[in-house]
Amino acid sequence: MRYFVAFFLFVFSLLDVQAQELRYKEIQGIAYSSSKDSYVQKQCLLDFYYPEDKKDFTTLIWFHGGGLTSGNRAIPERLKGGDFAVVSVGYRFAPQVRVEDIIKDGAEAISWVMKNIANYGGNTQKVVIGGYSAGAYLALMLALRKEYLAVHSVDADQLLGVISCSGQAITHFTERQSRHIRDTQPIVDEMAPLYWVRNTPFPIMLMTGDRELEMLGRYEENAYLARMLKLCGHKDVKLLEFQGYDHGMLTPALPLVVRQLKEWEALRLTNSNQKSESTKK
Fold first, then answer.
1. All domains of the chain in start order, with CATH
2. Which residues form the BD-FAE-like domain (predicted)?
3. What value, to the nearest 5°, has the Cα angle with vertex 203 and ends 213 and 280?
4. pLDDT single digits (tens) 127-170
5. What is the distance between the terminal CA atoms of the chain, rounded to a whole angstrom?
6. What is residue 47's three-state secondary structure?
7. Which of 89, 172, 222, 225 might form a disulfide with 206, Cβ 3.0–4.6 angstroms?
8. Sign of the CA dihedral running 161, 239, 47, 16
9. 102 contacts 90 by C-beta, under 8 angstroms
10. Which helix (H) or strand (E) holds 279?
């Protein structure tokens, strides 16, 4: 165990040194949809921040919050300079479109990344999807319900991981409101990540604020999702609760997002090396 820890400390030290030496570029307002609809052209854009001098980098696709009715795409400053790329996704809002249409926007954005990231030096086998609040809900739906990405010939199971910061695990409240269902009436149907729980091959990190301060049972939803994933046989699910923080838990969560990305990247490197040695034998 001592050598195992030492190895990871060595890898992280190399990543930190490399991050200090890298140059980064940001491209804003990339259209990821070919639709000619004016609302799609306005909303379905992404910002792309990546290390120019690194090859085979990890990419985090980030979905913003706002209840699926508002918000702006943005790359959090705390996610910059970490030797990985960040893609911030804009999407359409309810009630102009249905919640399922918004999820499909997210799938199309992920498809753009998978088809284009290698042109900038990225690796399609090292893509993580995540987000905050409504954005975390989108990430969970897209990862757990494989059909959304399959439409674009993308296999959700090739993801490196999923990070959810205070996302809903039950049917999103905006979807429930469209059906005239009150906020305090929990529903788990096809529009809920919990409905699609399965033993995914990629790790999942769930984070929420304090259960006594969060929105409408947000911690308990995530705790139930974590439990059901484990009962399905999932071996790598983390559930973190930021005590003392309400729904605005993103500030303390972002450093852990960065650390988790580096851990997953290092673990994948280790696994790849082990497979390569095994093949040689």
1. 2-265 (3.40.50.1820)
2. 46-147
3. 160
4. 999 999 999 999 999 999 999 999 999 999 999 999 999 999 99
5. 25
6. strand
7. 222
8. negative
9. no
10. helix 250-280
